[in-house]
Amino acid sequence: QVQLQESGPGLVKPSQTLSLTCTVSGGSITTSHFYWGWIRQPPGKGREWMGAIAYDGDTYYSESLKSRASISRDTSKNQFSLQLHSVTPEDTAMYYCKGRVWGRDYWGRGTQVTVSS
User: Fold this and answer.
1) Looking at residue 7, what is its pLDDT?
2) pLDDT tens digits, one per residue of 60-108
């Protein structure tokens, strides 16, 4: 059973960088054709796909966030991470990591991030 767990600070100040890590268990992030991504949901709004990293390290980003977002991975820890630069209060949201494994989606429980001074 693939499991994902987000971690990172729950409060970030405006203009700083939001950094989150997703730890994966029950499956390797380098297994062929597995994909790993980040999705967020601001309060009162729908989910927004932010970006993803593939099993081979290729990255993909939402057009609206590509200038500020960066996704990386640590294969030795079976983790992948999100950095979102120059955050504003509009980046306040529940952040989820997600894996697509053999065509099935697995979600982390999510972590609330608030951008506030």
Assistant:
1) 98
2) 999 999 999 999 999 999 999 999 999 999 999 999 999 999 889 999 9
Q: What is the mean pLDDT of residues 54-64?
A: 97
User: What's the CA gap between 84 and 16, in Å, rounded?
Assistant: 9
The residues with which 79 forms a beta bridge, in sequence order, are: 23, 74
The DSSP code sequence of the chain is --EEEEES-SEE-TTS-EEEEEEEESS-TTSTT-EEEEEEE-TTS--EEEEEEETTS-EEE-TTTTTTEEEEEETTTTEEEEEE-S--GGG-EEEEEEEEETTEEEE---EEEEE--
Give the bridge partners for 49, in sequence order: 39
CA distance 109 to 106: 10
